[in-house]
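User: I would dearly like some help making sense of a protein record. This is the protein in question:
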Amino acid sequence: MDPCRADIQTRRICSMQAYDFVHLSLYALGGVRKDVLQARTYFVGHLMSQDLYFQPTFYEPYSSAVACAVDRLIDLRFAKCTGDALRLTPAGKVMACAKVCGSSEFLNKLLNVKDAVKNAGRMDVESLKVAAKIHQRIGDVKVAMDGLYEITHAFGWRVPEAQTRKAAKFLNNLELMTVTK
C-alpha cells in the first residue's frame, strides 16, 4: 500500500508545506544522497524551524511527510533517482525557481543553512545519522563527552567512540549542542 495514501493522518502530514520545503531543499542542495536524505533533511528543517514531523527510529529520525514529498516529486517527474542520489529534473528546477520568484528570502536562508551544515564538518553516512539521532533524542543541551557515551548506550545504541565524537563535533559546530570534555 502507498504510505502517502495509507490513512487520513498520513495524508494530513503530506502537506504542501513539507512538499514545498523538500522541493526547495533539493533545489538548494543540488540533490541529496538517498541514504542520508532523512538525516540531512532533519538538520536543514530543524535549523530553519520547519516542523517536518520527524519520529525517532532506531537508525535515524524518519518523517513520512518527507518520504511522501519525495514520492510526490518523483511522481510529478520533478525529481529522479540517479545512481545513489535524488536530484531535481529540469522541470523540477523550473518549478522550484517559480516558487521562489519574487521572494528569495526563504531561498537565501536555505542556502545559508546549507553552507552551515557543509562547514560543520564532512560526515560519513553513519556519523550523520548518529548525529541526527543524538540531537533528536536529547536536543540542544550542554553535555560532557563521557555523558554522551552513556546516553547513547542507555538508548541501546552500540555506536563506536570515534563515530560519537564525530557526531558530537558536528553538532557542536552547528551550535545544536555544547559538548565538553
About this structure: The chain has a mean pLDDT of 85. The radius of gyration is 17 Å. The longest strand covers residues 79-82. DSSP finds nine helices and five strands in the chain.
